[in-house]
Amino acid sequence: MKKIGLTYDVKTDYQRRDNDPHDAIAEFDHPSTINILVRAIESNGYKVVRIGNANRLLDRLGSLKVDMVFNLSEGMYGRNRESQVPILLEMAGIPFVGSDALTLGMTLDKIMAKKIFISERIPTPKFFQIRNIEELVNADHCRFPLIVKPRFEGSSKGLSESSRVTNMDELHARVKLVLDTYKQDALVEEFISGSEFTVAIVGNDPPEALPSVQVKIDGRLKLNDKFYTFARISSRRLEYVCPARISRSQEKKLRELALKAYQAVECRDFGRVDFRIDKDDNPYVLEINPLPSLSTDDVFMLLAKQKGITYSKMIGMIIECAFKRYNLN
Ligand SMILES: Nc1ncnc2c1ncn2[C@@H]1O[C@H](COP(=O)(O)OP(=O)(O)O)[C@@H](O)[C@H]1O
Ligand SMILES: [Mg+2]
Fold first, then answer.
1. From ligand 2's centre to the CA of 197, what distance in Å?
2. I want to staple 117 with a disulfide (CB 3.0 to 4.6 A). Which of 99, 122, 212, 242 is the partner?
3. Does the CB atom of residue 43 touch ligand 1 within 6 A?
4. Rounded CA gap, 329 and 324, in Å?
5. Which atom of ligand 1 is the closest one to the Cα of 194?
């Protein structure tokens, strides 16, 4: 029986530090997500070895006997946090499911990813970067309203109602908060008023884009100025709708752009691309997630249902993509 190691960061493992923002553990999984995933992997006929985070992996790297690692680790701090487990596995010559260290670092850093999108002519909202508050003299490179995000976070970490800003004073206050609280550059983007979608992708050579999933907030699909804040995720005011309520040509366009983004940053095995579509039907890629949530509340579960397969089968397909990629099947 093949053995699959599992690397992950669970909320209960995190040691809070002084001055941590309230959403410091937003990116980590619930232990229950890991338990469900273990059962799903086992039901595909593999034996699971639970490893845990990068430190636990480091402790046993030399003696680890597994055929493949399924990596879900988010890492603790910095823009290379998601790259830590993959680089250790690569050094030890252990095959793993999902993207490598370079892709994870390049995409966790939203500014780097946007530079790649621009070079590949993938539409992404206009933006600028603020490294320190003195740089913020004026914002005439973009038009208000703007949204201010931390440069390298996920799970709507650092996003609240006041992240959408409509004038210089609000912009200044929000940039300062990101710099001071999240200790990283601020990414300031044009706010795309309209609707929101996410497209999951599975596979390699060629990858397949799954049906797009639409985001509903407070019961509405026309989001206008609403967006996905940390509080909205936590309070379950957000729902996913599949199939999305868009025309066939829009659906086709989103899937094409998602695949283009996936290939531009060289994702492997699975990923997810987030979009907004403005009032004139122009799509924009917000970001790509090579390590999207596999929680059963999230889109992969919904997409399995849509496909008429179980969650376990969906997980099995992702693992098979990795074995095939390494010619180990
Ligand atoms: N330029 C934008 N225009 C409108 N809404 C945005 C924009 N950027 C981000 N958002 C909102 O914030 C959410 C989180 O932003 P995103 O870039 O996907 O970061 P992450 O999911 O990594 O936290 C999006 O799902 C969307 O609702
Ligand atoms: Mg996102």
1. 10
2. 122
3. no
4. 5
5. 4
Regarding beta strands 3-7 and 68-71, do their DSSP bridges make them parallel or antiparallel, or are they unpaired? parallel
> How many whole angstroms from 189 Cα to the centroid of ligand 1?
10
Q: What is the pTM of this model?
A: 0.95
Can you give the pLDDT at residue 29? 78
Distance CA 85, CA 89 (A): 6
For the chain, list the domains and their CATH numbers.
Answer: 3-97 (3.40.50.20), 107-111+115-121+193-292 (3.30.470.20), 126-190 (3.30.1490.20)
Please tell me which residue, 233 or 311, carries the higher pLDDT value: 311
- CB distance 275 to ligand 1 below 6 Å: no
For residue 114, the ligand closest to its alpha carbon is 1
Given a contact cutoff of 8 angstroms between Cβ atoms, the answer to whether 248 and 237 are in contact is: no
Query: With 80 as the cut, is the pLDDT of residue 18 above it?
Result: no
| 192 within ligand 1 shell (Cβ under 6 A) | yes
Each residue's pLDDT tens digit, 20-40: 888 887 778 788 989 999 999
Concatenated DSSP letters of 157-211: TT--GGGEE-SHHHHHHHHHHHHHHH-SPEEEEE---EEEEEEEEE-SSS-EEPP
Identify which of 221, 228, 233 to mutate to test ligand 1's pocket (most ligand atoms within 8 A of the CB). Answer: 228
pLDDT tens figures, 214-253: 999 989 999 998 888 877 666 678 899 999 999 999 999 9
CB of 291 closer than 6 angstroms to any ligand 1 atom: no
Pick the more confident residue, 135 or 212: 212
